[in-house]
Amino acid sequence: MTDVNIDWDNLGFDFMPTRAMYLSKWEEKTGWDEGKVVPFGNFEISPASCVLNYGQGIFEGMKALRTKANKLVLFRPLDNGKRLKAGCERLLIPPYDPEKFVDDVKKVVKANEDYIPPYGKGALYIRPVLWGTGPILGVAPAPSYTFIIYVVPVGPYYKEGFNPIKLAISDFHRAAPKGTGGIKTICNYAGSMLPAKKVKEKGYNQELYLDAANNKYIEEVGTANFFCVVNNILLTPNLTGSILPGNTRASIIEIAKKKLNMKAEERNITIEEVLKASEVFCSGTAAVVTPIGSLYYKGKDYKFNDFNVGPITQKLYDLLTKIQLQEEKDIFGWVVEVEPDLVVKIQT
Prior knowledge:
The chain is an alpha+beta fold. Helices cover 22% and strands 28% of the residues.
């Protein structure tokens, strides 16, 4: 390993190449190969590949953190592996074993250890991707697949850091009932670029989607799950199949119940309820816990908690991040260490 030339104090959420990535391939006759860690770089793909023509692809988002004790830790990686597997089944992609997924993630993290920011300076964002790379003409599953894990050192997803952001209700819908909104397919994200662009042009950080069936229930923030506090009850939209089952979302619900002794409800939430909320925030691997200070709806900006971080939002953020960094007892068994003696060979 060598020291990398990175300005840790000014990390954004932008791509930069790192040392190594994980690569595995699937063929019908052999199934998934053993996979290997290779130098990060480009690879060839057919213009007729299924992922380029029909969008048969899925991905995950994770982080590796460096603790104060200089340990390298992951947060709920097996759950990411299980979610990837569920998405594979929905898209007729050969499922990838979740246990092996965790082992592969560890290898990539270890191979890029010096790209992990110092304690308190950011995280190593981990991007597993699984694509139908084999060529095909008709609409059908690909004949072969490629699984890659690459990593990028990152700072805060929002430049505001842990400070309130501004949202606007979108005129678009993110996903339809019985569609693919509940899995992390690449198809869900290209369609969100125009809605995001439109609200950002008006000075807002992200869009907030209403449900496609009724256009009155909250679904998701553009790239995060949604929460609000009403009458000291934590509310989040229930998983109807059009909302991504975020691991951070699930963690916040458990922390609220078991650490804060709060009542937490997963149910339909009307926009009218949200406007009466005492606190509003969103969550995700990238967003962590991000307070929402205002929401634009029908020509008016509605403020929450005077555009300040609410006390419950602050407590949830503190507890979540301390668990992730091994500074709070992990009663849930969520944090997984990357073994310090793990040896990884980068194959060329």
